[in-house]
Please model this.
Amino acid sequence: MTEGRTATEKLHAELHGLGVTSAYEIGDDATVAVWIGLVVHYRDGFYRWQEGAVRRRHLGTDPVGCAIRVARRYTELQADIPLWWDDLAKELRGNPAQEYP
Model:
């Protein structure tokens, strides 16, 4: 098992324990998608996450601390969806079909 895979599995388990059950591993052994536009990558000993244009990082030896920070931001985003989210969702999902989003 690779270092990235181990790190992402630990992070995913911690996020799930904090109630972020929608997070899932992308399948590249290094990426966890938390929510549309909020993605965490593990690389070079750090968890690096991106949310829109904002980039953050956290030590890879602390999946608990990283999960807390990411879960907190996930909760904030759910409570107050940023303006860029609708544009990103439209871009990723494409045009609605027969009035379905």
